[in-house]
Amino acid sequence: MSAAKSHLEVLPRSLQLLLVLGVFALAAFPFVSTDFYASMMARMMILAIFAMSLDLLQGVTGLVSLGHAAFFGIGGYFLSLVSSDSGTVSLWWTLPGAVLASAFFAAVIGFFVVRTHGIYFIMVTMAFAQMLFYLVFDNKEIGLFGLSLRLGGSDGVYINLKPDAALFDLENKKVFYFFTLGSLVLVYLFLRRVLWSPFGRVLAGIRVNEHRMRALGYGTFGYKLAAFTLGGGIAGLAGYLWGAQTGFVNPELMGFHMSAHAIMMVILGGMGNFAGAIVGAFAFEYLLHLFKDLPDIGGFRAGKHWQLWMGLFIVLVVAFAPRGLLGLAERVLRGKEKHHG
Amino acid sequence: MADEVLLSAKNLVKRFGGLAAVNDVSVDLWRGRIHAVIGPNGAGKSTLTNLLSGDLPPTTGSIHLGDQDITGRSPERISRAGLGRSYQKTNIFLPFTVWENVRLASQSRAQHAASWLRRATGYAGTNERAEKAITLAGLEHRRDAVAGTISHGEQRQLEIAMTLATEPQVLLLDEPLAGMGTAEAERMVALLQRLKEAHAIMLVEHDMDAVFALADRLTVMVNGQVIASGTPEQVRNDAGVQAAYLGEEERS
């Protein structure tokens, strides 16, 4: 039985309720908090979108990509490349543009990487991401078809003006916050829908038993490539929002750490249902701040070595709650229901 | 329905390094007939099945399905060309329900298999095909059970149901009776009898009672080679077969 529920693809009512409460809490947050914390929360929501895009590959399809940040970075850099300091650019073409650009790169890279399996997939996704990382890291500017693209090298690029949405003002911090929250909810609902579509069922089948899927007549290559492309596009959306929110892009956005953090978020929250990825992203970022603020203990700078505590925490979660924090919550809620009944 | 050859394999050879696991084997599968392949362990029966289904490419030889040359094609293309197989080791989606296993198999025949935004369970054609297969295999009462939790015999039935849901012309069944109880085995034999009419079936099986009850043609393999092929009567009376295989079975 545990195998069937291990991915919590079907979210019990109690968890659905919890998610709805979470959305209300997020909606209320900017009114009860400071701008500083609201901005931090907006960034967490953006990372939650990024984590969901990886969950489509990692939790649903079973493709563990160690280079997913490449597409996050491409989304951010797309915005920086089309932005200028002299005037704003319209949200309504730059956002779809960033998604399409990331999806395009994901399709090209995916064409080569989804042929591989297991450890090889992990290695080649990382290799492609590192190629893009160093392309940006080592070049202040590159020429392409007579165009000069300002990449900013290792220093990154500032994006001084938020995209112009015409209908609402993204320069207003609260408006941007709610735009991000809206994106989070829409991406979640979209991915949940995909999960239960014929396409999503094929992806789940590939995760469980790709060999059998092929024997049943499914050309799994095409499905995996489509998932990789879709995941890349949504990561690009997250990267675009990140660039707009922080007003800055640098090569770290597509770096190894970013990819690894996303994997940890998905594992921490619980794979394969997108809700876990959101929970994982928030938990990871919250813990990161918590651990970084740890005081020095007898000359040992506990805060500087936050990765140590994070690592320990994730090991504990994997050992004692293999379905992640969401699975843990489900267990607790189910236990309560039993007591009532 | 006129009997016709649906699958024809000629002079198949599969070498792993120096070892010829399948050595110059030819088989014709006819609609309306069950062609049993028997032989001791390691005779190359499963390798032969894997060659026909595309899980392994043959070293030499050719395979035709209907009028298509399917030699060296991928398993998914061979499946879509109308060949369905079951596995010796149960090869199902353990975390999914019985129904979802069969529905997913059925969905592979549908145009909408890659559609994104509608619910997978809302397609009438796919559901009907799955329903038919699950009823044929006798698993209606287990449809909502998780595949990993049902009995071994039921998993074997599920294996068949999934294969049937893809509506194949040719069925390759690799030891469908393995590990089944007597009652389950009888059900399966009855099912194969029923399926025979519309399908060309190749049956790899160790259960000799079932083989002689079902087979219209019989091929005996030893060490990758065919040592006898013909009707069950011919094979039963073949001196070489008795020495090499059937006699041994009786003694043991």
Give a short overview.
The complex is a heterodimer of chains A (about 350) and B (about 250). Chain A has about 350 residues and is mainly α.
Please, could you describe this protein's structure?
The complex is a heterodimer of chains A (341) and B (252). Chain A is built from 13 helices and 6 strands. In chain A, the strands form 3 sheets. A two-stranded antiparallel sheet of chain A has the order 1-2. Chain A has a two-stranded antiparallel ribbon with strand order 3-4. In chain A, strands 5-6 form a two-stranded antiparallel sheet. Chain A has a single domain (9-293, 300-335), classed as Orthogonal Bundle (ABC transporter involved in vitamin B12 uptake, BtuC), CATH 1.10.3470. The longest helix of chain A has 27 residues, at 35-61. Chain A is globular, with a radius of gyration of 20 Å. Chain A is mostly helical and 341 residues long. The model of chain A is unreliable at 1-5 (pLDDT under 50). Chain B is globular and about 60 Å long. The termini of chain B are far apart. Chain B has a 6-stranded mixed sheet, sandwiched between helices. Chain B has a 4-stranded antiparallel sheet with strand order 2-1-4-5, with helices on one face. In chain B, helix 3 (98-107) runs parallel beside helix 5. Chain B folds into 2 domains: 1-82 and 169-252, P-loop containing nucleotide triphosphate hydrolases (Rossmann fold, 3-Layer(aba) Sandwich), CATH 3.40.50; 92-167, no CATH class. The A-B interface holds A 1, 3-4, 6-7, 193-194, 196-202, 204-205, 208-209, 211-212, 214-220, 222-223, 226 and B 53, 55, 74-77, 79-80, 85, 87, 91-97, 100, 103-105, 107-110, 112-121, 123, 146, 148-149, 162, 166.
Keywords:
heterodimer; A: 341 residues; mainly alpha; ABC transporter involved in vitamin B12 uptake, BtuC; two-stranded antiparallel ribbon; 13 helices; 6 strands; disordered N terminus; B: 252 residues; Rossmann fold; four-stranded antiparallel sheet; 9 helices
